[in-house]
Amino acid sequence: MATFDDNPAVLTPHSDYDQETNNLQQAVNKIIEWTAKWKIQVNSLKSARVDFPLPQLTYNPTFINSELVNYSDNWAYDLIEVSLGNII
Q1: Which sequence spans correspond to the domains of the chain?
Q2: How do the residues of the chain divide into helix, strand and coil, expressed in percent and rounded to 5?
């Protein structure tokens, strides 16, 4: 977990792309559990995933609350920016 441009970010580097994306989904799931516990809404539409595996074999999607996370190709590491909504 890191901060990127005032937003939380998850980095999951691994030499195996499938394991890397699995680790990313597991981390996102833990964040979703934590935010639910603290009654914080996560806006999946404002969240983005960025990855640059070498070579990229297939795209393994990432989900927040069963919603597909947007994919972007702007940075050099696997990254999810989680946009937190209002506390309910």
Answers
A1: 2-87
A2: 25, 40, 40
